[in-house]
Fold these 2 entries.
Entry 1:
Amino acid sequence: NYVPKIGLCFDSLAEAYEYINLYSWEVGFGIRYSRSKSYKCKSGPKKDVVYQTLKHIVCGCEGYPRKKNTSYVRCGCKAMIRLLRTKDHGWYIKECKLEHNHNLSRNNGEKMCWPSHKHIDRYTRELVRNLRENNLPLTKVYSILGTYFGSTEDIPFNKRSLENLCKQISKEEANDDVRKTMDLFTKMRDEDPSIVYTADLDSDGRIRTLIWVNGKSKMDYKCFGDAITFDTTYKTNLYGMPFGLFVGVNNHFQSIIFSGVLMRQETIESFESIFREFTSLMGGKPPVTILTDQCRAMEVAIERVLKNTTHRWCKWHVPKMAKERLGSVYTKYSNFEPEFHKLINYSITVEEFEAAWEGLLQKYDLKEHHFLTPIYEARHHWAKPYFSGIFCAKMISTQRSESANHMLKGYVPPGAPMHLFVKQYNKLIADRILKEDSENQRTRMGGVVLKTGWPIEKHAATVYTSAMLQLFSDHIFGSAACNVIKAEANKKYLTIHSDAARREKWSKVNYEVTISDGGCMYKCECGLAEHMGMLCCHSIRVMLRQGVDKIPEGHILKRWTKDATDVLPDHLVHLQKDRGSARSQSYRHATLHVAALELAAIGDKNVDCYHDVVKYMKDGTKKFGSLLERLLLEEDIVHFVMYPNVPSCTT
């Protein structure tokens, strides 16, 4: 299909080389550049400009080896193509010799041994770059390329060449990383004028801390920023810098990411700067509660900066550390681990926790244990019963952050430079938004199946999102295990577990529910309503006993309702608009790529078709290139009118 002929013209030398190299692949030999001639302009506006006027492309076996016992396969082959420059700076074939004096490569494996066929074209390079950016291992990349080219045997380069390309790509990505990162933020801000970022640089221009917040996160924080978690365990970027995530939970009980932060050191000063900057970027509104891992520097920083915020440790780190520090106890006593976890997860009141802890230490003779003693002394920071009255949106551990960190590992390749890290983080955010949209759709469409049919559940279905209705229905279902005893009519009731004998010895089986404000407020000893913002099963059981068919308004927390995000400030309204027209660049690229492959398949069938397709593509490139320039100019004008103080990424 690609047989060179005298008179065949090309727009550039690179195009001529590519064409002849395709021919050499089909026949079974390699090529390389050889002789050339140049011309230097002696006058005129292009004086002293040097042009190549002649170029030879020869067979890889042209000439002879300079040394004996060499691995070179040169044997004096005379096959060659002579190219001359045209007046319009194109190239054409002047002379063509296609006969060879040696055997030709028979299969793809042999053909790939020629240096000219180890070259990876720019389209394949870009595909490899995109795959590696999305954290695909080398073996999977090679497998995908096999599908791309038809089979792994048809890939026009070997795995070693792919490894070298990946190393080269990683090196290119790491070059000038800070500038690329700042350019990326400029582009992000052009797409979302509400995005804000702060970079703290040292005297050498290196980033000490980098924190950013987009418009969607600001909107979410206004509605769901009452309880957040913060975690800095992710450290797999190029510089080993800790990466922190501020995470909350929305009205669908999904994790939502408020902000990402890269920091060089985990010191008190660094954390102070981060918490201060985060609060500032979020409009100066501090969270009600913040949950973190056990870190003294973080604790001091929160005390200094977030003075009115309740700080607690995550519960998650206790069983994790217990597994590391109590290994011998776990081995010696098979029942210790499940009993320990039951104590941590199911004790509700302080009395339950204290009784269960004392009983566990006595049973296994662990009174002065080197791990359990200090953990117990710090129980006010992590044990759930000591969270009574503290709103946490049912987030009693930083597993929300841990989960987000785990998801991020699926997007960011190990050793990623900073700009790629930010780019992939944005993909994670986009993924979370898609999941949120799915839940919004499910809630709007309705059609939920009620578990019990009680009128109060029907009312909950009109108020709560589908996910929160599920939780409320579970509370109604759980209330069936309680019996109600009237202590003071319409003021105080006692709920008793119907199967108290089967409960743990330390478990509390009766809870007092107090009614106030003329039946509008229910307060239970368990404290779940204050901790989560939703009625507990004990209060619901009393309501059912009284025939209450609607949730009192004082117990409907807006952050859990369908209308949690119904009121937005003017500068954030655009974030709720349909995002269908703003498809990602990768989506557009993939769609265009498929269409281009269809054209390429047509061009492959016939030489005449090939030339027509190439001409069609070149004409299209000129036409749509001009269109793009005009559209970018119009966007710059609109951007300047709407956001005169925000620079455009095209300027």
Entry 2:
Amino acid sequence: MQKAKSRGVYIDIELPFALRHIATELQAGIGLYKVLQSVAANDYGVLSEEMNRTILEIENGTDTKTALRHSALRSQSKNYNIALFHIVRTLNTGGNLASTINSVADTVSFDLLESTKTFGEKMNFFGIIFIFMAIVMPVFAAILGAIANAPLGQDGSLFLPGVMTPTTLTLIFAVALPIIFIFLVYYIKMIEPKM
């Protein structure tokens, strides 16, 4: 199931470009079958592989609409399924396929732009937290450790004995901060847009 989802993500990445390709060739008067062959022959990654499977189905006698429906059922990409649904619907009703595909490409591009924008907004907030954790906290701990271990008493005694010992500072810098940074990197990977 994980492999299918990752294939769906790869399809979503290439989908807007492939849809524009399809619409351009359809506007130029090329037939749908030839356009699908062109997409399969170009470098659209997993999307080209899926188109190859669809072309193979069509060559083995399956109707184009049925082959496109099968492709939608195999895919875990919501946007790809929507695009194929619109293509099949337009083929059934006899509308302008190129304009339909262009509108679907606009919608898919807008969705990708919105997910990227949302990720950017999250990263702005996350940048503030990262600056605090990576710069302010270590400097604060070092200054507190220096003050706590400074011999400020008249008899040379420590100002705050036992508060920030070298062992505590070592634990902060060698254990706590790396764990926090690993968590931050993991969190960034989790909120990254899946396209």
